[in-house]
Design brief:
Number of helices: 1
Oligomer: single chain
Radius of gyration: 14 Å
Order of helices and strands: EEEHEEEE
Shape: globular
Largest sheet: 3 strands, antiparallel
Number of strands: 7
């Protein structure tokens, strides 16, 4: 069993977290984040697809969900302030 940290986030210089890793590399294998694995299991999907180029990861696809990522497999977060 591989023990890897599931919530590994790196804040920007101003302390704000803007990217969340969807996949992580360990010992030459890719592992899904806890959130991605929960989506896979919850939707009954058997495969997570990762598209990459020589520059790194471009897209993570799980079922009909296609998520663009940076080269490190991180998704840009989108936080909106609730309106009242």
């Amino acid at each position: 069993m591989v023990d890897i940290q599931q919530m590994w986030v790196m804040p920007d210089d101003d302390g704000i977290v803007r990217n969340i890793p969807l996949v992580m590399s360990y010992a030459d294998k890719l592992y899904p984040s806890l959130a991605l694995e929960m989506l896979r299991v919850g939707e009954g999907i058997s495969t997570i697809q990762v598209r990459s180029t020589k520059n790194g990861i471009e897209v993570v696809r799980i079922g009909s969900h296609i998520v663009p990522t940076d080269a490190y497999g991180q998704m840009l977060t989108s936080f909106e302030t609730p309106t009242s």
